[in-house]
Amino acid sequence: METNKKAKYEELLQGLRALIAGEDEAVSVMANVCAAVHEAMGFFWTGFYLWRKDELRLGPFQGSVACMHIAAGRGVCGAALERRETLVVPDVERFPGHIACSSLSRSEIVVPMYAPDGRPLGVLDVDSDRLNTFDATDAHYHGLIAELVAPLL
Length: 153
Ligand code: SME
Hints:
The chain has helices at residues 2-20, 26-41, 75-83, 136-149; strands at 45-52, 55-62, 69-71, 87-89, 107-114, 120-128. It is of the alpha+beta class. The site of methionine sulfoxide (SME) has 14 residues, from helix 3 and strand 6. The site of methionine sulfoxide has 14 residues, from helix 3 and strand 6.
C-alpha cells in the first residue's frame, strides 16, 4: 500500500514536471496541477488558497464549491500558514476551528507556501471524504508539489 502510494506520487511528480516545464502563468499551472493531482490520487477536494490582502482567498481547485475567504490563522489552512508547517489532520472534527466547506470532508492535509524572503504565498489544501487518509508520505510529496508552484506566485 505504502510502496504503491509512493510509486503513484513518483509517477505523478514526473508528469507534473513535464506538464509545467517552461510555463510561467501561475493560474494555469495551479489549475492543471490540481487537475492532475486530483485525478491521479482520487482525492475529494484538491486546491490552492492564495494569500491576498491579509487573508487566504480561493484559487484554482478541483472538487465541490468551497469557501472563498479564510481569515488569517483560521481553519486548517490559516493555521498551517501561520505556524509555517504542514498540517496533517486525521479527523477534521477534532481540529479546533476547522472550516467545513463540505460536510463530507473527513480528513485533510495543508502545505503552506512562502516566498524566499518568508512572505506568505498561500497553501495547497487537499481533503478526503475518509478519516485518516494522509500520512508522512503524503506530506512529503505534497511539499514537493507545492515547491513546483511556489516559484510562480
Ligand atoms: N477545511 C479548510 C477549509 C477549506 S476547504 O477544506 C476546501 C480549513 O479548515 O482550512
